[in-house]
């Protein structure tokens, strides 16, 4: 696997990757630059930015930090690869869900094939839509792996505001609930394929550790830092996530699941703790 140099590979090897996301619709260079500096200071794995060739060129003039670009347009991804982006990602779909748009397995595979054809020499990451059931997610993930996709990312429900049914004092349940769907996908996909899986969408201090235990090679964070005003505040959040996922290397148990995917209506799990 060739992902943005030895530093990134070492992070993958020890499952300590933190992907910092500036946002698919964030085109303010000053905002993106602040997020970049916070990721750089905290020694995060890489930065995911909107697929804008001009922004990529400007960032590359100021930093050698590894950059990933996200888009649903293979041409945009191609242009950004020329501008210096190391990783090309098909995704993040959440901004389209609000408009009633959804993406099928066929849509995802078509985009992956076209992107791989245009840019065969760069690493391609694909976000697996949470709107697909787990059986469909496993099926498309295996096909993407065969196509030469090097990295997968999970996502979860973007609307998690209705938490009134949870005890307002039960902070842990709330933090896990908002990440539940992406954690489920992480748990399944990390055992279905042999390529790294990054767990993303509403990841926080509790779910980040859970993601690593569930088999993720890293986590992607955006909402946790996006509203912070200063580089220092953003960096502190990233540092806490890094510290949290480092705890996973000290865990003395593992999860060995059995997933029955023969019947798409019968996804069963059995966990054995050692």
TrEMBL record:
InterPro entries referenced in this protein's UniProt entry, alphabetically: Uncharacterised_Ycf23
Record's keyword terms, sorted: Chloroplast, Membrane, Plastid, Transmembrane, Transmembrane helix
Transmembrane intervals: 175-193, 205-225
Subcellular location: Plastid
GO cellular component terms, semicolon-separated: plastid
Domain of life of the organism encoding this protein: Eukaryota
Family: Belongs to the ycf23 family.
Name of the protein in question: Uncharacterized protein ycf23
Lineage, uppermost ranks: Eukaryota, Rhodophyta, Florideophyceae, Rhodymeniophycidae, Ceramiales
Gene that produces this protein: ycf23
């Amino acid at each position: 696997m060739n992902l943005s140099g030895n530093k990134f590979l070492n992070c993958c090897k020890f499952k300590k990757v933190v992907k910092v996301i500036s946002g698919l619709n964030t085109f303010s260079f000053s905002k993106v630059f602040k997020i970049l500096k916070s990721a750089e200071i905290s020694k995060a794995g890489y930065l995911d930015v909107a697929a804008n060739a001009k922004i990529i060129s400007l960032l590359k003039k100021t930093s050698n930090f590894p950059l990933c670009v996200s888009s649903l347009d293979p041409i945009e991804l191609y242009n950004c690869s020329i501008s210096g982006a190391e990783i090309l990602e098909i995704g993040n779909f959440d901004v389209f869900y609000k408009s009633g748009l959804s993406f099928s397995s066929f849509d995802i595979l078509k985009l992956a094939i076209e992107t791989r054809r245009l840019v065969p020499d760069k690493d391609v990451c694909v976000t697996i839509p949470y709107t697909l059931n787990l059986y469909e997610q496993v099926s498309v993930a295996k096909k993407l792996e065969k196509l030469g996709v090097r990295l997968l990312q999970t996502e979860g429900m973007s609307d998690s505001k209705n938490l009134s049914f949870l005890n307002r004092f039960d902070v842990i349940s709330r933090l896990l609930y908002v990440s539940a769907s992406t954690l489920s996908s992480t748990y399944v996909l990390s055992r279905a394929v042999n390529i790294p899986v990054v767990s993303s969408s509403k990841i926080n201090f509790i779910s980040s550790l859970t993601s690593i235990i569930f088999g993720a090679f890293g986590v992607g964070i955006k909402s946790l830092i996006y509203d912070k005003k200063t580089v220092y505040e953003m960096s502190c959040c990233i540092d806490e996530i890094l510290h949290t996922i480092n705890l996973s290397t000290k865990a003395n148990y593992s999860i060995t699941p059995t997933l029955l995917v023969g019947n798409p209506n019968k996804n069963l799990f059995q966990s054995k703790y050692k």
